[in-house]
UniProtKB/TrEMBL annotation:
The lineage of its organism: Eukaryota, Sar, Stramenopiles, Ochrophyta, Bacillariophyta. Keywords: S-adenosyl-L-methionine, Transferase, tRNA processing. GO terms for biological process: tRNA processing. GO terms for molecular function: tRNA-uridine aminocarboxypropyltransferase activity. Belongs to the TDD superfamily. DTWD2 family. It comes from Chaetoceros tenuissimus. Residues 20-259 form the DTW domain. It holds the Pfam family DTW. The keyword DNA repair does not apply. PANTHER family: TRNA-URIDINE AMINOCARBOXYPROPYLTRANSFERASE 2. The keyword Lipid metabolism does not apply. This is tRNA-uridine aminocarboxypropyltransferase.
Length: 264
């Protein structure tokens, strides 16, 4: 009888603990203590001048402190007119250790392998050009084509591919995709220079939940926000701040929890 009473008490306590841990339906974080919905845009952002593809390592998908789920809550993930000539999207994530036809949506695969569709891989290999250099070259090329001397921005909608992984895994994924001929043949590699690209907005180790190899290394979310600010321009002029708000809130909450544990 005594054992039954103890078991009942334990079961009751376990049920009580489970009930206390409420999960937010939108951001999927413990609510209210870790909810970041207050920092999210009211509606997902539709990109006007670019597309984003994230190749995410399987390990990253399981991490609770990954930055990509925050971006996915901010950007529109819908697919427009699938399998038609008008197919388009803003943000697409694929999980795998390499980029390949077997894991990518067929419409997306067809698009990024069309030589008329500009594709850029955000990975700093030996041939990578800087983001600033890319924008300058592409805007000049498109202006000449259109005959508009006053054109300032890219007029063709480019797709930017980002690798979401630890630095060592990202290197493995890049090489493996290259060995499998997964990168579009016409794709160009780009590199970011955080200090100059972000100017006054640059914050070293902004995402210090995860320790970067150096102050100049950015989280995947920061890389995406940096590129989109330059490419989207006036159509989404606040996009950098909008994408950084949930990340900054998550980091702030993490620091608060960490300090509380240290003081207890």
């Amino acid at each position: 009888m005594k054992d039954d009473t103890i078991a009942t008490v334990k079961e009751s306590l376990g049920t009580s603990r489970k009930r206390k841990r409420s999960i937010c339906d939108r951001c999927k974080k413990p609510s209210p203590q870790a909810c970041i919905c207050s920092a999210l845009p009211e509606t997902p952002i539709t990109l006007q001048h670019s597309r984003v593809i994230v190749l995410q390592h399987p390990h990253e998908r399981k991490r609770k402190n990954s930055s990509i789920p925050l971006i996915s809550l901010c950007l529109d993930q819908s697919m427009k007119d699938d399998d038609t000539d008008d197919f388009d999207f803003s943000f697409y994530t694929v999980t795998g250790r390499y980029l390949g036809e077997d894991i990518v949506l067929s419409s997306v695969w067809k698009m990024i392998n069309d030589p008329n569709e500009p594709v850029y891989i955000c990975y700093p290999n030996e041939d990578a050009v800087s983001l600033k250099e890319l924008l300058s070259q592409e805007s000049v090329a498109s202006c000449r084509e259109l005959g508009d001397q006053n054109c300032k921005r890219i007029n063709i909608k480019p797709t930017f591919i980002f690798i979401d992984a630890t630095w060592s895994h990202a290197k493995e994924m890049y090489i493996k995709t290259k060995e499998k001929n997964g990168w579009p043949k016409h794709a160009i590699n780009i590199k970011l220079n955080p200090t100059s690209d972000n100017g006054k907005d640059f914050q070293a180790r902004r995402f210090d939940i995860r320790t970067p190899p150096s102050p100049d290394h950015l989280s995947t979310s920061e890389c995406i926000a940096t590129v989109l600010r330059e490419v989207e321009g006036e159509s989404n002029k606040d996009i950098f701040d909008l994408l950084m708000r949930p990340l900054d809130l998550m980091v702030s909450q993490w620091r608060s929890f960490k300090n509380k544990r240290q003081n207890d």
